[in-house]
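// run 5 | inverse folding | seed 20
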């Protein structure tokens, strides 16, 4: 009986931690995930850097639009040149839409002109679930102190990125300028992450 009670309390505490794991203004959930080259990338080693997380599924029409238009590669190139660490994250499980093994994912990323610092292979979905990544693309920004400062959409319009309000870019510019982020949490659009 005591073991059951202890387990219930422990499980409840764990659920509490995970349900509040990706809150704006709080430390971002820690992660340690392999990239397409098999190297481990972990948040702890990136302290002191601004980190962008971009959830991806290259088969999703919304993601395709941002890559085929050159919008996403341009953002990646612009901000990595400003010392931002850009992590493209695939949480698609094996057998689900958008899943590729690491070698194929690296090839597809290159074909799509992805210019991120790393592409992470979160095929068990642990990182995605810790951040509560809902769709592709879903964008997050972590500041130099490891605090989550943006959780939301890449922009305001699923139909036309060219005329949309640049929600994510505006937030990232604010972080780099050391000013408060407006609209730090908003609803992202896209295809559901295929956990």
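// decoded
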């Amino acid at each position: 009986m005591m073991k059951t009670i202890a387990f219930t309390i422990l499980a409840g505490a764990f659920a509490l931690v995970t349900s509040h794991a990706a809150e704006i203004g709080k430390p971002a959930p820690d992660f340690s995930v392999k990239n397409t080259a098999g190297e481990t990338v972990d948040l702890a080693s990136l302290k002191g850097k601004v980190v962008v997380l971009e959830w991806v599924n290259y088969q999703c029409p919304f993601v395709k639009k941002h890559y085929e238009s050159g919008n996403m590669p341009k953002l990646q190139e612009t901000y990595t040149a400003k010392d931002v660490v850009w992590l493209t994250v695939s949480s698609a499980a094996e057998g689900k839409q958008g899943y590729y093994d690491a070698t194929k994912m690296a090839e597809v990323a290159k074909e799509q002109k992805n210019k991120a610092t790393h592409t992470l292979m979160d095929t068990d979905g642990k990182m995605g679930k810790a951040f509560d990544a809902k769709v592709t693309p879903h964008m997050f920004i972590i500041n130099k102190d490891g605090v989550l400062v943006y959780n939301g959409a890449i922009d305001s319009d699923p139909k036309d990125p060219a005329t949309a309000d640049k929600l994510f870019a505006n937030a990232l510019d604010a972080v780099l300028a050391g000013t408060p982020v407006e609209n730090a949490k908003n609803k992202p659009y896209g295809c559901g992450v295929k956990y």
